[in-house]
Amino acid sequence: MGVSDAFQQYQTFVNVDIDDVREARARRDLFKAAFLPEFDVKEVIASGSLARGTHKNPIHDVDVVLIFDGSKHEDWGLPGSSAEDALDHTRRRVNALLGATNGTHEKAVRLARWRNHAVKCFLDDPDDPDAFTVDAMPALRRDGKLLIPEAISEKWVPCDPEYLISEVAKKHAEWNKFAGSVRMLKA
What we know:
By secondary structure, the protein is an alpha+beta fold.
């Protein structure tokens, strides 16, 4: 067996079944549909390995960035409690819009718990070791980049997931085995 054949054969192990990819996209898009109409949200963008095409089997989570209107949250972006405030606000809005018992958009999220940069939203049983989550990260757009909250340091840090997505797309356009190679290395 040649290198190309071995690569193709291994891809069947690391590549995600198309139905699982569709389900992951649907869960990500659920957050986009719920948050875009919000008065204080300017954009919702896909992020993470699914957005880059470098996700491996199985998909455990998808990432969305909720870009808030800084004029509606003037204290956000400043050092101190505003990082935690942004995460709390995001968690509360997830519960109001998508909470399993009281969501106004859809009843889908069983548990939403914030971490250092994002709110981890369990759509499956949180006790299931293979539970699928959507990680919703609040952000502000400043100077062409994103500022994201960092609860531990009580600061907002620059982040540029759009650049990474663009760079992966360029590399994959140059060499159509790039994304598959990243999935293989992850595995």
